[in-house]
Specification:
The protein has 8 helices and 13 strands. The protein is α/β, with parallel strands linked by helices. Helix 3 crosses helix 4 and helix 7 runs antiparallel to helix 8. The longest helix is centred in the first third of the chain and has 13 residues.
Amino acid sequence: MLPDRFAVISDIHGNLPALQTVLADMHGRGIGHAVNLGDILSGPLWPAETADLLMGLNLPTIAGNHERQLLACQQRPGGPSDQYAFDQTSPLQRAWLASLPGALRLGDVQLTHGSPHSDLQYLLDDIVAANLVPASRATVAQRLGQTSATLVLCGHSHMPRLLQLPDGPLVLNPGSVGLPAYDDSDGGYHRVQTGAPHASYAIAERVATGWQVELLRIAYDWPQAAQRAADNGRPDWAAWLQSGMAT
């Protein structure tokens, strides 16, 4: 079971300084428990160091699409972000990734990376004119399906979102700890951009009337992360990390 107040992190993508800053911010706010919604290591940053830190914390953690894609590099070459993380991580770290479930239910809190049907499906967002926009309540309810959860936690889109479904759960995407912007061709070419380079996470608290949520954007040393991406041959990531924009 989760405590009544806990942090929600997602989409770290190997960004060690962002993760360290978020963990320090949590500690400063008296938060001693967190859950992790996946897409943990893939990217041209610090995958092995990020894995070591998280393995030591032993947080409730689920796998995202990039865990699946990273592990598939054992059979065939993957995309550059997944392949870099695969090449930099140890068999023990990859075994940890392979052990992660695709979803978790912790009391009345449901954890999913994308939607319950696909780790590649945005739960709270639609692709419109090559950008992400908030999905309607009816669309989110259809994607989510039947659930008795009072709080559903999702990631994948990197966009901080909060939606209360009528006679249903509160659905929360905490945003991305490690990557504030990107572009993608899955589902058709689109850009994801939060508009600022800050690390995102959320705090959820059970109160008498339901759930109270704080969406947080935390400053960290993003020039360091951008330089790391550039040094590893990824100017696209460097620009995204530096600006929070994908244009």
